[in-house]
Specification:
Blueprint: H1 4-10, H2 14-24, E1 36-42, H3 50-69, E2 74-80, H4 96-100, H5 120-135, E3 140-143, H6 144-150, H7 154-162, H8 164-172, H9 177-182, E4 186-188, E5 201-205, E6 210-214, E7 220-224, E8 230-232, H10 234-245, E9 249-253, H11 260-269, E10 276-280, E11 283-284, H12 301-307, H13 310-318, E12 325-326, H14 331-346, H15 351-354, H16 358-362, H17 376-386, H18 391-401, H19 411-428, H20 439-453, H21 460-463, H22 468-482, H23 489-500, H24 508-515, H25 517-528
Parallel strand pairs: 1-2, 1-9, 2-3, 9-10, 11-12
Antiparallel strand pairs: 4-8, 5-6, 6-7
GO molecular function: ATP binding; lysine-tRNA ligase activity; tRNA binding
Subcellular location: Cytoplasm
InterPro entries: aa-tRNA-synth_I_codon-bd_sub2, aa-tRNA-synth_I_CS, aa_tRNA-synth_I_cd-bd_sf, Lys-tRNA-ligase, Rossmann-like_a/b/a_fold
Length: 535
């Protein structure tokens, strides 16, 4: 009998493939530190977005997979680079003038524009942690400011002094000539202004553990590199942190991929072993541009969760992490329905297929049963034609379609109904454009109405014993074929555009079964009179 570990060692699911790479690091001996360290990085220069969450979600999936194939303990460290200087003011936060007055100060020294936390960095850290906690991630949180100021990095900063020339040699190769003249891997914090200074070093004293430099006014200063007086530029900081903490795995976006040799090289110069990497493709906004914390484009975590459950977001993160994906409102319904399709498939799958199923990785091997008997896309269309303002209206139709369904027995359906009404009113309703049917389409729709009226006045379950939705779909299909629609997709597109005001929609037989035969007849007749198109 195949065990879970055996199946996992042969799985082609990307979390298991990555977990096996991490395990190979310790095929000769376990880690001296006693655990395998997975790390994610977060730059709190703006409000956290879904890309930030994605790193933690995906790393957690790999960590869980590692726990199946190995008995070595693991940790997940979520590291915030909150000592970075604020290089520019995010566009989507209040008190812009106040923030501009604090440019170049460490994020944990910039006042919170929301007035809720000791600093802007602390505010953004709290937002990230709040969501990670809500989602149930197991992690340890680490603050760059705390690590630098408490002395946790002191020994490694002294080592950076000792290896300064080697680090600079790695960095200078990657810089343009004019940048080389002013570059230093050390960034002093000005003792008076508190700003992060990007100035060259006049002298680095490894024995004393100090750096000497001139500030922007030409005054010379000498500061210890320890105790939070100095931090590292972000690329050297990556490598130093890997070495200092013994990081075994870290993923980052494609925009970092060209820096991988730099991060690895600095880690090795300092005596560390470079971790395993996983480079994922970037999320794109509606216009196909990279999402950005400072721009506030794309979706936020809270925005997604306003219209769909957390599990659908986990599903979106699981899918093809090395493929660039649009992260916009229209991906939410598809993610919800595909997630539930995978849940329904899971129960009947053999073990080797179950661990390749996304829901295994979303739920740590214990996915729940789906009670979503009506697809989310169908709920949106039902909200459209019924004019629903709340989920109770949708339940009136759903009880007729699935008499056994209740809010208590089908909690995910109940939740989705509320999401669907909200999503429809916010995104679908404002964009609908109804049109009149062509002569050919009108004849076909009149035929469809006649066939629906000819059905016996009985419950659909008695008319179509096996599957009412499929029986009605057969009728719709036959009408399209007999009226010469080729390809047949044009017939269904006509139904969606004329009846729903959009170019895509549900399986129409299922829609009729859910909305009701008499109600569907009335809808088509309203469209044929021009009422829906405002004619």
């Amino acid at each position: 009998m195949t065990t879970l570990r055996d199946a996992a060692m042969n799985s082609k699911a990307w979390p298991f493939e990555e977990a096996r790479r991490v395990l190979k690091r310790y095929e000769k001996a376990p880690p001296e530190k006693g655990y395998v360290l997975f790390e994610t990085g977060y730059g709190p220069s703006g409000l956290p977005h879904i890309g930030t969450f994605g790193e933690v979600a995906r790393t957690t999936m790999i960590r869980r997979a590692f726990g199946i194939i190995s008995d070595i303990p693991t940790k997940l460290l979520c590291f915030s680079d909150d000592m970075d200087g604020m290089r520019k003011v995010p566009e989507n936060v209040p008190q812009q003038e106040m923030l501009r007055a604090n440019i170049q100060k460490p994020l944990t020294s910039v006042p919170d524009p929301f007035g809720e936390y000791p600093s802007f960095g602390a505010h953004n850290n709290a937002m990230l942690r709040r969501f990670l906690d809500t989602f149930g991630f197991e992690y340890e949180f680490a603050s760059s400011t705390e690590y630098y100021k408490s002395g946790k990095f002191d020994d490694w900063l002294i080592r950076c002094c000792e290896k300064y020339d080697d680090i600079m040699a790695i960095m200078l190769k990657s810089l343009r000539e004019e940048r080389q003249q002013s570059y230093s891997c050390f960034l002093p914090i000005h003792p008076e202004t508190g700003r992060v200074l990007y100035v060259p070093m006049k002298h680095v004293d490894a024995k004393a553990g100090t750096v000497t430099f001139d500030d922007e006014d030409g005054r010379e200063w000498t500061l210890p590199v320890t105790g939070g007086h100095v931090k590292l530029q972000w690329k050297p900081d990556f490598g130093m942190r890997w070495a200092a903490l013994g990081v075994d795995f870290e993923m980052y976006g494609k925009d970092h991929s060209s820096n991988t040799p730099i991060y690895d090289g600095i880690c090795r110069v300092l005596g560390g072993r470079a971790p395993e990497h996983f480079v994922y493709e970037l999320f794109l906004d509606e216009q196909g541009e990279k999402i950005s914390k400072s721009k506030g484009n794309g979706l936020t975590i809270d925005e997604w969760l306003t219209y769909a459950a957390t599990e659908s977001l986990g599903y979106f993160m699981y899918q093809k992490p090395k493929t660039a994906k649009r992260l916009w409102w229209d991906v939410i319904p598809k993610a919800v329905d595909e997630y539930h399709q995978q849940l329904r498939a899971f129960e009947a799958q053999p073990l080797d297929k179950q661990i390749d199923n996304p829901v295994w990785h979303i739920h740590g091997g214990q996915p729940p049963k789906s009670t979503m008997v009506v697809p989310f896309a169908m709920l949106l269309n039902l909200a459209s034609v019924s004019g629903a303002k709340d989920k109770d209206t949708l339940w009136g139709f759903m009880r007729r379609y699935a008499p056994e369904a209740t809010p208590e027995a089908n909690p995910d359906l109940d939740q989705a109904a509320g999401f669907a009404v909200r999503y429809f009113n916010d995104f679908v309703a404002p964009t609908r454009t109804f049109r009149l049917p062509s002569d050919k389409e009108r004849a076909a729709m009149e035929d469809l109405v006649a066939r629906l009226k000819a059905l016996p006045d009985l419950p659909l379950a008695e008319i179509f014993e096996d599957d009412p939705a499929e029986g009605l779909q057969t009728i719709v299909f036959a009408v399209g074929k007999e009226h010469g629609f080729e390809p047949l997709r044009d017939w269904f597109t006509a139904l969606y555009e004329v009846l729903l005001g959009q170019s895509q929609g549900p399986r129409f037989g299922g829609f009729i079964a859910l909305y009701g035969v008499k109600e569907s007849i009335a809808l088509i007749e309203r469209a044929l009179t021009g009422e829906l198109a405002g004619a």
